[in-house]
Structure formats: structure tokens, C-alpha cells
Automatic annotation (TrEMBL):
Keywords: ATP-binding, Hydrolase, Iron, Iron-sulfur, Metal-binding, Nucleotide-binding. This is Iron-sulfur cluster carrier protein. It comes from the Bacteria. PANTHER family: IRON-SULFUR PROTEIN NUBPL. Binds and transfers iron-sulfur (Fe-S) clusters to target apoproteins. Can hydrolyze ATP. CDD domains: Mrp_NBP35. It comes from Acetobacteroides hydrogenigenes.
Length: 264
């Protein structure tokens, strides 16, 4: 007989959204940041946790590379105080490690670190906490999904077949009965390239239709197709996430993703 797993409900956080992908390099962190910004922009109290132990991106995306969180006593215990930008409360494992050096952690330390980061951060009242997870289906995902109550997941892919093969594993992970976390839908990132000078033009550099075929295979909605342009990389590298959503087509895609989450 399988023993029922008791998941921890974090107080004062109404919903936890997992952003995942079995494949690295699909822009998952940018999608997670965009989701958080969309939620905050609609007036929801929002947090973003960067749980990518081996490749944290939040410090770069939000121009906080040298930031170190303060520790304060709240409700009788020492808590990590998140940074706040664009109305989003931010916490990242990258605030505590030297990003120039490799993180060599075994599984138990990874699990312990993520649990502590999630539980010891003073989030306050949140409508949504978005968690950016690392590629793959490893210790971070198991820790989050088996130990904490989550509202659902967004699975990110790019159109090409090489990405889809790995992303399918992430979908299988969430569908595992021991995990029991619903998938809000598939996000196809870098769906096409549109030059900023000619936004009506579409160039399918990484193939076409991959996200829809994945969604069809698992009977899931394709909640958004996010295009890209030559300015996206510059904005992300400069820590200017707000500029990302000034592009009409990109903002429209994130609005679709936002609606796909809220409707669930």
C-alpha cells in the first residue's frame, strides 16, 4: 500500500505556480519572470522564487547580481527578506552563491537548500508565488512537488523536435500519480522571430508546430506562443525586464499565458 504523502501548505500564499521544462535553453526563466510581471501588472500580490540551483537567472534578469538579502526577525523567527522590483517579491539561490563558480551539491543538500529558501523567506501575503525550476526532473522538482502544495505547472518548450523529446519527460513527471500536480498548459517559447522594424513578419527559425503537437499528444492546451526579436536578449542581459513587455506581440503572448493560468 502506498503511503499518503502529506504536503506542506505555506501560510499566506494562495497559489504556487511551477514553471518547468525537461530541456535547458528554452527560455524558461524568462517565461517565469514574464508570468510574474504579468500577474503583478494586473494587481496580484506576486513573488518569484528562482530555484535553479545550478543556473540561477533572477539576479541577472532583474539587475540584482551583487545583491545580498537581509535577515530580519519576523513572527519570532529569522527570515530572509526578498527584494522587490516591478511589484514582485524576488528570491534566488543566486543571491547566496558565487555565480562564477560551479555549484557542486549532492541531492540532499539541494533539497534542503530549496526547502529552506522557500520556507524561510518572508513572502508576506501573496496571491501567486511563481517558482522557476531547473531543467530536468531531479531533486528540486521532487522536493517541491512532494513536500509542498502547488496549484499547478506551466511547461515550457521550443518548437524543435530535440526540445520536445526532453519536455515530454517533464510532462510525464507532473502526470505521475505520486506527484499529482495539474498542468495548466504548454508554452511554446521562441515560437518565431519577428524583427522589431517589421513585426508583421514571422520567421520560424526553430521549426513550426512543435508546441501544438506536444499539447495534442498529452491533451493539454497550448496556452501561449511567445515570439522573440533582436532586442529580447539585450533587455534580459541588462536586467530590464520591463522593456520585454513593451513589445506588443510579446505582451499579447504573456497576456494569453496569464489568462490561461487565471482561468484554471
Amino acid at each position: 500500500m502506498n503511503q499518503q504523502i502529506e504536503k506542506k501548505k505555506l501560510p499566506n500564499i494562495k497559489n504556487i505556480i511551477i514553471v518547468a521544462s525537461g530541456k535547458g535553453g528554452v527560455g524558461k526563466s524568462t517565461v517565469a519572470a514574464g508570468v510574474a510581471m504579468s500577474l503583478a501588472g494586473e494587481g496580484y500580490k506576486t513573488g518569484l522564487l528562482d530555484a535553479d540551483i545550478f543556473g540561477p537567472s533572477v539576479p541577472l534578469l532583474f539587475d540584482l547580481q551583487d545583491a545580498k538579502p537581509e535577515v530580519e526577525v519576523r513572527d519570532g523567527k529569522q527570515c530572509l527578506m526578498p527584494f522587490e522590483k516591478y511589484g514582485i517579491k524576488l528570491m534566488s539561490i543566486g543571491f547566496f552563491i558565487d555565480t562564477k563558480q560551479a555549484v557542486v551539491w549532492r541531492g540532499p543538500r539541494v533539497s534542503s537548500g530549496i526547502s529552506q529558501l522557500l520556507s524561510d523567506t518572508y513572502w508576506g501575503e501573496l496571491d501567486y508565488l511563481v517558482i522557476d525550476t531547473p531543467p530536468g526532473t531531479g531533486d528540486v522538482h521532487i522536493t517541491l512537488l512532494q513536500n509542498f502544495e502547488t496549484s499547478g505547472a506551466v511547461v515550457v518548450t521550443t518548437p524543435q523536435q530535440m526540445a520536445l523529446a526532453d519536455v515530454k519527460k517533464a510532462v510525464d513527471m507532473f502526470n505521475d500519480p505520486q506527484i499529482g500536480t495539474p498542468i495548466f498548459g504548454i508554452v511554446e517559447n521562441m515560437a518565431w522571430f519577428s524583427p522589431t522594424a517589421h513585426p508583421e513578419e514571422k520567421y520560424f527559425l526553430f521549426g513550426k508546430g512543435g508546441g501544438q503537437s506536444l499539447a495534442n499528444e498529452f491533451n493539454l492546451p497550448l496556452v501561449a506562443q511567445i515570439p522573440f526579436n533582436e532586442k529580447m536578449g539585450e533587455s534580459c542581459d541588462a536586467g530590464k525586464m520591463a522593456e520585454l513587455l513593451t513589445d506588443k506581440s510579446i505582451k499579447a503572448a504573456f497576456n494569453q499565458l496569464f489568462n490561461g493560468i487565471i482561468s484554471k
